[in-house]
Structures are given as structure tokens and as C-alpha cells.
Amino acid sequence: MAKLFFICGPHCGGKTTIIGRLHHDRVVHFAGDEIGKRLYYERRLNTGIQKHDFEHEVAELELARDVEIAANGHVSCVETWHPGNLAYAAVRNPSSVPALAEMCRRSPMLGVATGIWLRTPVGKIKQRTRTFSDQRDWAEDFYRKIDDQLGACIDLLGLADRTIEVTSEDGLDAVYDTVSAVIRSQAGR
Fold first, then answer.
1. DSSP labels for 12-48?
2. Helix H or strand E segment including 118
3. How far is CA 15 from CA 72, 75, 117, in A?
4. ∠ CA(99), CA(101), CA(104), 5° rounding?
5. Domains assigned to the chain
């Protein structure tokens, strides 16, 4: 039976690095990227001002990937996933959230997903960002707003009791060890 773990949280929390390492260490069979971030780099988008059609495109791509994950029957880990995508929409296009949440509820993985919410301390986004090194104040403000929406989005999808908060202040190795232990215990490894 397929098992899905999602790692969400704001920019600069270590999501990409941790997921790559989980895959490298064979804790998970499949490591999925953040679809919105991939589109950002491919299309050179302004991440702060995407419209409703972008939010729907990301949700549809996420749902298609969920179908593949359900079919593969393995332990998978993806970055941001539906709660994170909803949090972006809640900041950029709040009126699109109800329709997007209904789309997310169609996921075949929703009932078996476990979340890990990496909590990045205030000021760390500004300090750590390379992507927005010329807009550090904007990045801290924008991604703090995303993080502020995550709890409500996790709850909206019925994932609150299956999402664990981990502070990303403890250093990447310590955070990785915590995340790895959670996945190993939940996946029966």
C-alpha cells in the first residue's frame, strides 16, 4: 500500500535538502519536488503575484502525481503538497481557496498522508535566502504569510492530527534525523 509523507513550511526551512537526503538514504522510494517552485524556475515567474489559473494548474499537476503515487505502492515524500499550495493561494488569491480545497479532497492519497511542518524561526528566511538575495525583506514577509496560513490549510484538508511540527532551527542534521525517524516509524521501517 502506498504511503505519502509531505514536508511543508516556508522558504529556507530545508524541505528540498531533507527530501533529497531521504531519497538518497532510501528512507523513501520516491522524492517529489515542489511543483509550484519548479514552474517558478521553468517560467521565471514572479512568485508573489500568480493568478487563479496558476493555482489551479499546480493543483491539477499535484493530483496527477498523487494518482501515480497511489499506483506505485511505495513510500513517497513530496515537498509542500496540497496544504502548502493552498497556503500560497490563501496569500495570493484567497477567493480561490474553497475551489482548490475541493480539488485537493479528490486526492487518492489524502487519507494516508502524514505531514511534517518545518517551522522556520522569524528572521531565518531573510538570513538564509539565496533565491531572493536582492529582496530579503520581501521574502521574509511573503513566506512568513505563507507559514501563517499553513495551519488553517492543514486543518481544512483534515490533516491536523497527522501533521507533526518540527522546528528547523536545530540544524539541518538534527532536523533530518527527526524527520527520518518520523517517516521510518510511520512507514513501519
1. TSSHHHHHHHHHHTTS-SEEE--HHHHHHHHHT--GG
2. strand 113-119
3. 23, 17, 9
4. 115
5. 10-186 (3.40.50.300)
As a whole number of angstroms, the distance between CA 118 and CA 45 comes to 25
Residue with cell 492543514: 154
Give the up-direction half-sphere exposure of residue 142: CA atoms within 13 A in the CB hemisphere: 16
Cβ count within 10 A of residue 153: 24
3-state SS track over 137-176: HHHHHHHHHHHHHHHHHHHHCCCHHHEEEEEHHHCHHHHH
Q: Over its length of 189 residues, how does the chain's per-residue pLDDT go in tens digits? A: 789 999 998 777 779 999 999 999 999 999 999 999 899 889 887 777 788 899 999 999 999 999 999 999 899 999 999 999 999 999 999 999 999 999 999 999 999 999 999 988 776 766 676 777 787 787 777 888 989 999 999 999 999 999 999 987 778 899 999 999 999 999 876
pTM of the model: 0.91
Looking at residue 11, its amino acid is H
- State how far the Cα of 182 lies from the Cα of 92, in Å rounded to an integer: 32
Strands 163-167 and 30-32: unpaired
| Cβ 90 vs Cβ 147: under 8 Å | no
CB 158, CB 110: distance < 8 Å: yes
